[in-house]
Amino acid sequence: MVFQPIPSRATADEVARQIQMLVLEGVLHPGDKLPGERDLSATLAVSRPILRDALKALEGRGLVESRPGGGTYVAAIEGSVFAAPIVELIAQSPKAGGDYLEFRREIEASAAAMAAERATEADRTILSRIIETMETEHGKADFRREAALDVEFHQAIGEATHNIVIIHVLRACYRLLADGVFYNRSRLYGQSGSRDQLLAQHKAIRDAILAGDPVAARKAAVDHIAYVAASMKDAAEAGAREEIASLRLMQFEERATAKRPVRRE
After folding, report:
1. Is the model more confident about 13 or about 262?
2. Residues in Cβ contact with 170 at an 8 Å cutoff, skipping those fewer than 6 apart
3. Which residue has the higher pLDDT, 232 or 1?
4. How many other β-carbons are positioned within 10 Å of the β-carbon of residue 90?
5. Are 46 and 6 in contact (CB under 8 A)?
6. What region, left, alpha or beta, does residue 167 occupy, with left being phi > 0 and alpha being psi -120 to 50 degrees?
7. Which residues partner with 67 through β-bridges?
8. 72 by DSSP, 3-state: which?
9. Crossing angle of helices 194-210/143-160, nearest 10°?
10. Residues 180 and 97: beta-carbon distance below 8 Å
């Protein structure tokens, strides 16, 4: 269990602090369900009234949320890097996708190098198990599942840095990616050979981190983002060509229709 018994004469504040620490350190993720009241109070070695007070305080701070009949969950606290009006403007900007990938290249390269230096055995196990799941799911060609695992893998690298700012900045950053603010990831996964390339790149990052090689980890992360940037550029150009070609076909058919002689009865 990730929860630890509280020393005797525990207060609600002490219970709340333990849960807050687990959220801050990235142990508990947004959407994670907390154990039921009876089990959690027993694990923490506190009374149920004290636990209720702690959860009520955490809910008041927006860290957890109660769902009627469904228990208590970690709230969607990853937030947003930008306010809604800026997000809307960014989504309309033709250069936002490139700028976002440039940002990711720098922060993910640093995170991968830091993870190679700091990752514990538990961190390495998590990364390896995510890659194993990626390999299992790879043959199913399920874009949504692969995209979700992609984000999970990069978040795990951030967590392996043991830097709480990097952990939460990356989470907010990936939330924008998942929402499709910067670019449509289905285009990336839909390109010929891209799924194989992405899996190989993720494995290269994993291998470098497991080997404790920060130089190789940084390079693997930079190479990965460079591939994503080039692929998205190719996809955008191919999409533009397809759009123009479709318009040409429409106009071609209209001209052909106009040139047909009118049959007189």
Report:
1. 13
2. 107, 108, 111, 154, 155, 158
3. 232
4. 18
5. yes
6. alpha
7. 71
8. strand
9. 20
10. no
Q: Among 126, 201, 121, which residue's Cα sits nearest to residue 157?
A: 126
pTM of structure: 0.73
Are 205 and 221 spatial neighbours (Cβ–Cβ below 8 Å)? yes
Burial of 206 (0-12, 13-18, 19+ CB in 10 A): buried
26 dihedral zone (left: phi>0; alpha: psi -120 to 50; beta): left
- What is the distance of C-alpha 109 from the center of its chain? 16
CA distances to 75, 111, 208 from 167, in Å: 16, 9, 20
Q: Are 215 and 221 in contact (CB under 8 A)?
A: no
Q: Which has more pLDDT, 251 or 1?
A: 251
Q: Are 148 and 189 in contact (CB under 8 A)?
A: no
* Distances from the Cα of 245 to the Cα of 149, 184, 234, 255, angstroms: 35, 21, 16, 15
The token duo for 48 is 């149920």
Minimum mean pLDDT among 48-52, 56-60, 85-89, 162-166: which range? 85-89
Which residue intervals of the chain are DSSP H helices?
Answer: 12-24, 37-44, 48-60, 84-92, 96-118, 121-138, 143-160, 164-178, 185-190, 194-210, 214-259
